[in-house]
Amino acid sequence: MPDVNRRTFLTLSGAVLGGIATGTTVTAATRTDRFIVQTKGKGKLRGLDVVHEMPGVKFAVVEASESALRRSKAVKAFEPDVEITLSEPATNAQAPTFSPGDASDYEGQPGDFLQWDKSDLNVPEAHETTEGEGTRVAVIDSGVLETHPDLAGPLNIGLSMNFTDDGGDHNPVGGDDHGTHVAGIIAADNGGGSGVNGTAPKTDLVDCRVFSGPSASFGDILAAIVYSVNVDADVANLSLGAYPVPRQGLGSFYGKTLNSVMTYANKEGTLLAIAAGNDSADLQHDGNLISIPNEGAQAVSVAATGPIGYGWDAEDEAPAHSPAFYTNYGTNAITLGAPGGDADLAAIGTGAPWFNDLVFNTVFVHGGSLVSGTFGPNAEDYPGDVTASWTGSYDGNVTVQGTPPYTTDSVPWYSSVGFGGVEFGVTGGPTFTGGETVTVDYTTGAGHERLAPDWISIYLAGPPVDGDGNPTNYVAVDWRVSESSETSVAWTASDSFGDGPGGVFEASSVAEIFENPDIDPSSPDASESDIVGKATVTGVGVFSGGGIGADEAVDITYTGVAFEGGDLLIPQTPTYGWKAGTSMAAPNVAGAAALVKSANPGYNANQVESALKRAASVPSGYDKAYYGSGYLNILDAL
Questions:
Q1: How many CA atoms lie within 13 A of 125 on its CB side?
Q2: Catalytic residue at 583?
Q3: 0.85 cut: is pTM over it?
Q4: Which of 26, 125, 144, 212 lies at a 20 to 30 A Cα distance from 637?
């Protein structure tokens, strides 16, 4: 959900809808190809391509022209669907994960030291009563990795669905492990004996993926809620949200649609556990603004708490029930407070294990980091639009598409360069000889004008040159790799030593070569003698794109990248890591709700919520505005 300094919302036909995202900052844009329609409840939507029917409510998501919608006798009203783009907040981006090797050696158990949230909620003791048997929880998020050993047991693959139009299945697409972490907080079953433990490890977990890479749509989220209800989910977790939304817009089409769907969920017995947001905002006294969906009808809105100094010597320690620095609050806007993690920002980068105060659970790692955008001193004057995204089964490929910058002005091609691709770290890299081989497999689409890949690079760390003892970063790069589509290119850095475009640059990445005004991309500022036998290989980069006047379009997919024979472009690898946010607090409540339902099978959604609220209390000395009914108390709720 968006942080306090980044608030983006979109005005649409008199209604205002904020960006919806998993725990992060967002931008929003209308989709011209899809619409959310309110039906008249009679007849079928003939002549319209129905994407989501949403049985049980009088709404649907369709692909059609506006004129066709106006002609339809079954359509009462409609508005464009909204496409959402997100980016990770800085705190989570700096949090570590276990390496795959460490993960294979990790033998955590219920009540493990790293899981302070489960300990503080007395989850091991609650499991003496129930572990969530006979319940079902839906996770509406970025996808749940089915190969994670701690999630393979509870995950119902048969019911799990992809609500996007990207053609994949329910598994994550886009390298985002947010949904996998959320799912673990709810239902991880410690891999049958070692790993992490969720609050309700014996619930039936249904994955509803609504994000494709960094993007989601409002219509897909609504459809996922309805689907969760119709497969008899007792709880649906939505660790996503939008803020700020002007209150006057909520009464229009989008607000009416949201409230109708949420009311339907409650009536049919599905409790909605929803993150309250990470804006540090007082939702009780924010004028004409509102946060959705957590302030929508029937929502269980969850604020976040967390410790400071858990297992380390923090200057200002705080208990696990203290409000997190980022959490939204407001007495009537919050239903419960629950563990979501906190952070001492001043401790980041000091070597202290500050991340212990975040929530530890299931994640995955990917070998590469996507890079895309427009770079160069004139990038703002001549912007391009090139993006890179993980594609293929379980993120096995990287696709780069878009349009590089263009101008008729007399400027160098490298003054504005649009490109995308992927960078890989190389651990334990060899001393550089110039003959190390990077092998790239790829296919080009009709929009890629010339042979590809365009640029291949090797990142290096050499001896200090400025006396401060820090390594000097170098990039050996070839600007023009020319091979036909569906072939395998084997490239060595020595290819760029004086026999073609490229060369050796003193920089930490290809992007820095273009961004740094002190570097001339047309004239290498380092040489072979600076690195051969002296530098260590630290990474590999593979990119496509072009500078001004170089290409009109980019369309290429990398299907394989290897360094010295070792495949770098590999699928997601299950592991464990830390995150913080109300996105982590909501699933702690969702898991608790599953336990209450398991212990009381006859309870409806309102009764489950009532049990959680009655058991909760506001910690002594703390403001009720951060807790609503109070801090989550699972044992008393049971």
A1: 10
A2: yes
A3: no
A4: 144
